[in-house]
Design goal:
Elements lengths: L1 H44 L3 E4 L3 E4 L3 E4 L5 E3 L2 H6 L4 H30 L4 H26 L13 H26 L13
Helix pairs in contact: 1-3, 1-5, 3-4, 4-5
Length: about 200
């Protein structure tokens, strides 16, 4: 009777381990999907516009202000230099923000591969590196864009695209934290990838 009870407990613990790894993969996949969906919404659907009003449209590719003729006047990059906005800062902000979208896509495909196929340590490390670089480039790009343009940007005028970028950054940090904790907890049990058959 006692031996049967011990077997039942051992089977229950094994089942918990399998379900916790399933929950880990599902949480990673949902965070990767959510982060990429918010980045796509902000940078592709909203065209990277931080402010999207009828009288003002300011974004990574748009800089349109209301003029004296009561119409929206979109300025070119050479006109922005006359206003005191650095061309280098604008280009760097675009590169940093849009590279975070690409890196998050690569991290999502890595997580999908880890969840479905490989389950090795090197893949999780790659996802951690991609998310780390992305978590640095996204706020850097936003800072490089917002600080030179702060006299035209009011907090009350920020659009849904900006809120989506902030939400994507929060999900990105949460996803990175889960992967770091997972790698720390299962450091010894995760196998390294075998490139040659044994």
């Amino acid at each position: 009777m006692q031996l049967k009870f011990q077997r039942t407990i051992v089977e229950f613990i094994k089942g918990l381990r399998e379900s916790s790894s399933c929950l880990l993969y599902l949480s990673n996949l949902s965070l990767a999907f959510g982060c990429n969906a918010l980045l796509f919404y902000a940078l592709v659907w909203e065209a990277g516009n931080i402010i999207n009003l009828p009288t003002k449209r300011i974004g990574f590719y748009n800089f349109c202000l209301w003029n004296q003729k009561a119409e929206l006047d979109c300025l070119m990059i050479r006109d922005l230099e006359k206003l005191g906005i650095s061309k280098v800062a604008m280009v760097l902000s675009r590169v940093c923000v849009y590279i975070s979208l690409v890196l998050c896509l690569f991290a999502a495909t890595t997580v999908v591969q880890q969840a479905l196929c490989f389950k090795d340590r090197d893949g999780w490390k790659l996802a951690r590196i991609l998310l780390s670089v992305s978590s640095l480039s996204l706020p850097l790009g936003l800072a490089l864009f917002i600080f030179p343009n702060q006299r035209w940007i009011q907090v009350s005028e920020l659009s849904k695209g900006f809120a989506a970028l902030v939400g994507a950054y929060i999900l990105l940090l949460l996803h990175l934290l889960i992967i770091i904790l997972y790698l720390a907890k299962f450091k010894e049990t995760l196998p390294e990838r075998q490139f040659t058959p044994i």
